[in-house]
């Protein structure tokens, strides 16, 4: 999966558009589509995108296969999720956490 495809997937999980992500991050409207066309992402932008989605830069670059939570507070919350929770319920909880953080401008 390319950097663009990973970003698109992360945005889809949050039910937001790439246009919204570029707006939230202050990037040009066509930035992600330049990545789709093969442009190499700048390191500072990769860090901003990783922070926005709470994933590692390695995940965005394809060096990791899972979009693991990289925030210690989120790991604490995840540890308190009921063991009987379904994968869908866990994803909903994580999406809600992402939503709350994005509303704070994290």
Automatic annotation (TrEMBL):
Record keywords, A-Z: DNA-binding
Pfam families reported for this sequence: HTH_26
Family annotation (InterPro entries): Cro/C1-type_HTH, Lambda_DNA-bd_dom_sf
Stretches assigned to the HTH cro/C1-type domain: 7-60
Entries under SUPFAM superfamilies matching the protein: lambda repressor-like DNA-binding domains (SSF47413)
Protein origin, superkingdom: Bacteria
Single GO MF descriptor: DNA binding
PANTHER family documented for this protein: HTH-TYPE TRANSCRIPTIONAL REGULATOR XRE, TRACRIPTIONAL REGULATORY PROTEIN-RELATED-RELATED
Protein name: Helix-turn-helix transcriptional regulator
Organism annotation: Ligilactobacillus murinus
């Amino acid at each position: 999966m390319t950097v663009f495809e990973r970003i698109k997937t992360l945005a889809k999980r949050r039910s937001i558009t790439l246009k919204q992500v570029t707006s939230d991050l202050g990037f040009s409207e066509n930035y992600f589509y330049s990545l789709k066309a093969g442009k190499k992402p700048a390191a500072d932008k990769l860090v901003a995108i990783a922070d926005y989605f709470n994933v590692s830069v390695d995940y965005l670059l394809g060096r990791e296969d899972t979009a693991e939570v990289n925030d210690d507070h989120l790991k604490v919350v995840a540890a308190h999720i009921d063991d009987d929770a379904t994968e869908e319920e866990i994803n909903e909880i994580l999406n809600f956490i992402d939503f709350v953080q994005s509303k704070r401008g994290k």
